[in-house]
Design brief:
It contains eight helices and twelve strands. The protein is an alpha+beta fold. The chain has one domain. Helix 7 crosses helix 8. The chain is globular and about 60 Å long.
Length: 333
């Protein structure tokens, strides 16, 4: 029997953890690929759990959003600290107002783009929770003090998160509204497509559907997508795919690079390439036709709701409209 030298044994011991680590990274990377199974036929799907045709799109209030003015947080109230929220990129809190309503609060750079993205997805017919921006407010209790720009998301006792759902395994794969949701996120340059950001809600508030699917935590939007190759096989790739809330970056990145038949090459750099590659010309046209129904006031209201200055609003909106027009041109060609 051949005996290993002491040096060989030490080398083997050192290599085992690295091999195991590489296998873990490879497994994580594999989860980004779409399943190869066929999607369920649309006739067997309750598509309204994901999307409801926005027949009133032109009259939707994009300043106050799906919760309306009546559910908005009171910026003058003192909010009781309940817990720290350390999950994700941005810090935050769970708080309670003086009416007993609980709110999930997000601080930092993601607060503004999340409000805009949530307003626009809701306008297109996708379910969204009541979400607002508060520019200044007071926190009491353990973490007391004055707070700055924050995203407030209302926690309703009649709507509870029951599970998460994946972009790659869900009941809506292959349907037009699902493909449109992918396109809408590409237009917004939202690159943080984690399963943990997608929630299934159970509703007991009289909705016609007992559950509905939501894409939440949309703050990694309105910047650029990027993908450092040296991070390709590491978990760090999930948080290093682009910038957030960066006007110059958003303006600099294109939308459609090339068309080959019904297939589109997007100006996209990220870990969800195989999902993006499933998008067709029809999917882009469908989504852009919805977005084209928004009035100038609705576009402006979505950004006013997030406290963007006038010049910033105009530049962001001009870029978004240029993407929409590029998508509409596909129908004409």
């Amino acid at each position: 029997m051949t005996r290993l030298s002491r040096t060989s044994v030490l080398g083997l011991r050192r290599s085992v953890p690295m091999i195991a680590l590489a296998l873990v990274f490879a497994a994580c990377a594999g989860r980004t690929a779409p399943p190869r199974g066929l999607a369920a036929p649309p006739s067997s799907i309750d598509i309204q759990q994901l999307w409801i045709d926005p027949i009133d799109l032109e009259s939707r209030d994009l300043f106050n959003g799906p919760g309306g003015a009546q559910l908005a947080p009171n910026p003058s109230a003192r909010y009781e600290f309940l817990a720290v929220d350390n999950v994700g990129f941005s810090p935050g809190y769970t708080v309670r107002d003086d009416q007993g309503t609980e709110w999930n609060v997000k601080l930092g750079i993601e607060a503004q783009p999340e409000v805009v993205a949530s307003r626009l997805l809701w306008a297109l017919g996708y379910h969204q929770p009541a979400t607002y921006l508060v520019t200044a407010w007071e926190l009491t209790g353990k973490q007391s003090g004055a707070q700055g720009i924050s995203r407030f998301r209302r926690e309703s006792p009649n709507q509870k998160v029951t599970s998460e759902w994946s972009w790659y395994e869900n009941p809506f794969e292959g349907t037009q509204p699902f493909k449109g949701l992918v396109v809408a996120n590409l237009i917004l340059n939202n690159w943080d497509w984690k399963t943990s950001n997608n929630k299934v809600y159970a509703s007991a508030d009289g909705r016609p559907h007992p559950q509905f699917y939501v894409v939440r935590d949309l703050g990694a939007s309105l910047g650029k997508t990027s993908f450092p190759q040296f991070l390709k096989w590491t978990p760090l790739r999930m948080g290093k795919q682009g910038s957030r809330n960066h006007l110059d970056d958003f303006e600099a990145q294109g939308f459609i690079k090339d068309i080959d038949g019904d297939r589109i090459t997007f100006d996209y750099k990220g870990i969800n390439t195989r999902l993006v590659e499933t998008v067709t010309v029809q999917d882009v046209v469908w989504t852009c036709r919805l977005m084209a129904r928004l009035s100038d006031k609705q576009w402006d209201d979505a950004f006013r709701a997030a406290a963007y200055e006038t010049a910033e609003r105009q530049r962001f909106i001009a870029k978004l409209k240029s993407k929409v027009n590029q998508g509409l041109a596909l129908a004409r060609s």
